[in-house]
Amino acid sequence: MTRSPLTRRSRSTLLNAALVLVLLGVVAGLWFVLRPADAAASTDAATVRSATATRATVSTTIAATGNVAASSVANPTFTVTGTLTKLKVAVGDTVEKGDVLAVIDTAELDDAVTQAEDSLEDARSQLSSAASSVTAAKQQVTEAQDAYDTKVTEKDPETGEKTTTRKGSKSQVTSAKSQLSQARSQYSSASRSVERAQTALEDAQADAKKSKLKAPMDGIVTAVNAAVGDTVGSGSSGSAGGALHAPERAGPAWATPRENL
């Protein structure tokens, strides 16, 4: 019996497919046996583990050696001279900014204000007098000039001859102007005196407000270098700075902010 070409072609196709499958199986077996170690590790690493996240406190301890010091130190002292009448703090007291630390007697400060007021009143009186002098001198200049400008004509009764003269003289005008210049100079001097007296009064009034020594910041009193009855302030001996170290008492001194202790 004669075989058809289609049947032979089909057998050939099946044979080829079988060969391909065998070849793929050989290649797969070789790869599995000879695969790299990292590939095996990656297969093992594919395993995933999960856990629940929670909050916790992580603490770290640092050990160090050193001296504890305040971040800032203040040594307040009176800027005016007076007798200490009240001391409101002691070493170890805690104070806040603006608290009154000590008070000095205000009698001398009040007297200084009164004297300054009297001086200002006198200076103003002198200025008023000088202003009046200027006004009077101006009037004299005007009158002297008018007299000089005024001409007077007289007729001789016997001869009938007429003579023209001036009512005032040139020297009178010059003298009046000189007096006006002096009056103006006195006024300027009196005006400057008023300004100085006014400044002195303002300074005295400002000093009168400095009778209380106040804390410039929050802190703890670490030193007090004065006692009631002491003379303290800018004009007393040993008061020029360094209140904590001055050999003579200059005024209360304190330091060390409390938040740093």
Would you kindly provide a written description of the structure presented here, covering whatever features stand out?
By secondary structure, this protein is α+β, with helices and mostly antiparallel strands. The protein has two domains: 85 residues, RNA polymerase II/Efflux pump adaptor protein, barrel-sandwich hybrid domain (OB fold (Dihydrolipoamide Acetyltransferase, E2P), Beta Barrel); 105 residues. Helices cover 46% and strands 15% of the residues. The protein is built from four helices and nine strands, in the order H-H-E-E-E-H-E-E-H-E-E-E-E. The strands form three sheets. The protein has a four-stranded antiparallel β-sheet with strand order 6-3-1-8, with no helix packed on it. A hairpin with a 6-residue loop joins strand 4 and strand 5. Helix 3 packs antiparallel against helix 4. The longest helix is centred in the middle third of the chain and has 43 residues. It starts with a helix and ends in a 6-residue tail after the last strand.
Summarize, please.
The chain has 261 residues and is an alpha+beta fold. The chain contains 4 helices and 9 strands.
Q: How is the secondary structure organized here?
A:
Blueprint: H1 5-34, H2 37-45, E1 82-87, E2 94-95, E3 100-104, H3 107-149, E4 151-155, E5 162-166, H4 170-208, E6 212-214, E7 219-225, E8 231-232, E9 251-255
Helix pairs in contact: 3-4
